[in-house]
Amino acid sequence: MTDQVPAEDVSFGDGLAELEGIVASLESGELDLEESLTRYERGVALLRQLQSRLTDAQQRVTVLLGELESEARETDDLA
């Protein structure tokens, strides 16, 4: 697993797919200890990045919803 794209540069979909593959390989029990640790570390890095992106997206949606509600109130006040 050399020449990996840094977790920060992986798209959300690709990161999720890679993380699912890592989980499957770890659950298989067919990896040696070193490879298991390497994949586990990569999985943790991907998981952190994906969680961060989800949190950012959730905050953006919250802001957008707040803006929409504010606009709706302003429109109601003008009516």
CATH class, named Mainly Alpha
Let me know the average pLDDT: 92
Under CATH, the topology is which?
Helix Hairpins
Structural class designation? mainly alpha
CATH architecture: Orthogonal Bundle
The tally of beta strands, per DSSP, is 0
CATH superfamily: Exonuclease VII, small subunit
Note the gap between the termini: 62 Å
Ranges with pLDDT <50 over ≥5 residues? none
Tally the helices.
2
- SSE ordering: HH
Radius of gyration: 20 Å
Count of the separate structural domains: 1
Spatial shape: rod-shaped
Residue fraction in strands: under 5%
What does the largest sheet look like?
none
Helix share, percent: over 70%
General description of the model:
5% of the residues are buried. Helix content is 80%, strand content 0%. The chain is mostly helical and 79 residues long. The chain is built from two helices and no strands. The chain has a single domain, classed as Exonuclease VII, small subunit (Helix Hairpins), CATH 1.10.287. The longest helix is centred in the last third of the chain and has 46 residues, at 33-78.
Which descriptors would you attach to this protein?
79 residues, mainly alpha, Helix Hairpins, 2 helices, 0% strand
Q: In brief, what are we looking at here?
A:
With 79 residues, the protein is an all-alpha fold. It is 80% helix and 0% strand.
SSE blueprint:
Elements: H1 12-28, H2 33-78
Helix pairs in contact: 1-2
